Amino acid sequence: MAELQLSPSQLAAYQDCPRRYLATQGQRETTAAMSLGAAVHEALFHWHQRGGFGMLGQEALLALLADHWRREGYADRSAEAASYHRGQASLRAYYAAGPGPGVPIAHEAYRRCTVQLHGHRLQLRGRFDRVDLLPGIAGPSPGAGGRIAVVDYKVSRIEPPLARQLALSPAIFAYYLLARAHYPHYAEVRVTVLYLRPEGVVRREIAYPPAVAARAREWLADVVGGLIEGEMQPRSGAFCVRCRVQDSCPTGHCPTLTLGLEGGSYGPTKVC
To answer: Which of 156, 157, 168, 213 has its CA 20 to 30 A from that of 259?
Structure first.
């Protein structure tokens, strides 16, 4: 039985383009996009840890961005300044969108689980940016009959896919599997993706009724099978325009920013 250890981000990279996935494995180079994303995530984490919407205002959130700003990966000061302003605009949009329907119960939660897929064993590991308790009917014990959402923040220039497209993304489904394994007593587990765009937050709610979960599991099995078989042919797509290996890629870069189904330390291991 073949065994792999993967994170949602690795699954997303392979689904976007196997060559991109292969090129980024083991690399420690920090890109501008990585620096921006890390700074925004850290600002949101510390803001929520200190009380979030109930205790702090927008200026506190922006101050945390400055405190956790990272300067690696930028070509020059001008590029860094533009990225910083984008980060500020994204956090202003987050604050303006308000707290949403759920009550946060965890932040930066690291999890593992084991999944059996067509004779293969997949060790999933990942981090939930936030876990929200959603409105629902309370059960006889904590969590029983309730609903939760694992929240993933995205700081990206890519046009946000529709929820039905995201439901078939192996990366998003991996978050669902991790959540279902670690919150088994809840009646419903869903994934919420928040695209933090300067012009406003785009929210995507992804639920997994049995038929959708079965299809998503097949997509995940196909990706895992490709990795095990060593299928590393390049694939043109939306991410080509900012791929670090496009200059040496035989496919070349694709300038069209459209998105179909592409891209689209841990806790104890559980089996899901």
So the answer is: 213
Closest Cα partner for 150 from 112, 185, 177? Answer: 177
Per-residue pLDDT tens for 52-63? 998 999 999 999
Going 153 to 34 to 259 to 115, the CA torsion angle's sign is negative
The structural domains of the chain, with segments of one domain joined by +, span 3-24+103-271, 32-97
DSSP 72-136: TT-SSHHHHHHHHHHHHHHHHHHHHH-S-SSEEEEEEEEEEEEEEETTEEEEEEEEEEEEEEES-
* pTM to 2 decimal places: 0.85
The SS3 of residue 173 is helix
The residue written with tokens 């707290």 in the block is: 99
Q: Which of 253, 255, 242 is nearest to 32 (CA)?
A: 242
